[in-house]
Amino acid sequence: MSPFSAPHARRRRPSPLIAALALALALVPAACGPGGDLEPAPEATRSAPPPGVMNVVARGLSFEAPAEVPLGWTTIRFENLSPMVHFVVVERLPEGQGASSQQELVAPVFQRGMDLIAAGDMDGAMAEFGTLPPWFGDIVFMGGPGLTSAGQTSQATVYLEPGTYLLECYVKTAGVFHSYNPDPAILGMVHEFTVTAEASGAVEPSPTLSVRISSASGIEIEGTPSAGTHMVRVDFDDQVVHENFVQHDVHVARIPDGFDLATLEAWMNWVDPAGLQTPSPVEFIGGTNEMPGGTYAYFTVTLTPGTYALVAEVPGALGKGMLQTFTVE
Fold first, then answer.
1. Prediction pTM value
2. Measured between alpha carbons, how far is 297 from 78 in angstroms, rounded to an integer?
3. What is the DSSP pairing of strand 153-160 with strand 172-173?
């Protein structure tokens, strides 16, 4: 599942959820452009990234990212300059589809479904999700930086073939998906880009830690995490669609002393009205979003002494072995 960004083709009266979100953003002007308005800030002036690196910046509720990248191993470096948690899932679209398709046919369905769930009408929500276009099932999720808290920078590396892709964040604020876009001045964490036929020449990373994830065994860590910066390889031994319509992935969180892991487990399920809702209950420092079974990705993480969790965005993660903790001495 991924509630893509989309303004309605016709204007509707703003919902109470959108009004609440607009108020929340008004109280955090640092999330927006100069003066605290909600228009995306101009892209930062930066030197050209090295081959195979794609810089993505979150400001408020918008992404800044290039329109084209070459094929091959691509490190997506995500700098979260927003005051709230985000992730960057990479989605390869079926031929002939693009951001405009999502704007009209996908995001409104997920937002209406979420509104029905919040109102206690699960049957109505399921009926709403049944109106998604047939090609929605042909989207291929290709990793990307996992949940990343405000002020953090995370990196994920994946091999990208030529095609049309989206970057998206569907974390929620005031019950509204960040990628839902009824008014471009308020919401819209989605970015379309093209992977060209020109190769970047970037080489595959070398891991210092390995993680495996499957529906049968959950998340398994291979090696002993130690203090320092690690390149983590994540192998998706299989892939399934879980009860909340999402596939499994791996996010990294710092766990404070005495924290109840059941709180994190519940928060990771977007179908729960409080799930994936800002603010997050813990600090997230990256990971990788979902990928097809039999594929793998990398992410970079810096560990300091303390307790951490690897957790998937699935319901019942503890029972599925998809919420595992480890300690760095």
1. 0.86
2. 15
3. unpaired
Tell me if 285 sits within 8 A of 279, measured CB to CB. Answer: no
SS3 at position 117: helix
- What is the DSSP track for 128-168? HHTTS-GGGGG-EE---B--B-TT-EEEEEEEE-SEEEEEE
Q: What is the DSSP letter of 170?
A: -
Nearest to 138 by CA among 172, 164, 177, 170: 164
Query: Could you list the pLDDT tens digit for every one of the 329 residues in the chain?
Result: 443 333 222 223 333 333 333 333 333 333 333 222 323 344 444 567 888 999 999 998 889 999 999 999 999 999 999 999 999 999 999 999 988 787 778 889 999 999 999 999 999 999 999 999 999 999 999 999 999 999 999 999 999 999 999 999 999 999 999 999 777 555 578 999 999 999 999 999 999 999 999 999 999 999 889 999 999 999 999 999 999 999 999 999 999 999 999 999 999 999 999 999 999 999 999 999 999 999 999 999 999 999 999 999 999 999 999 999 999 99
Residue 291 structure tokens: 């990928």
* Distance of alpha carbon 164 from alpha carbon 195, whole angstroms: 6
- What is the C-alpha to C-alpha distance for residues 220 and 248, in angstroms, rounded to an integer? 13
User: Which residue, 209, 207, 237, is CA-closest to 223?
Assistant: 209
Tokens 């704007």 sit at which residue?
103
H helices of the chain, in order, are 16-26, 99-105, 107-118, 122-129, 261-267
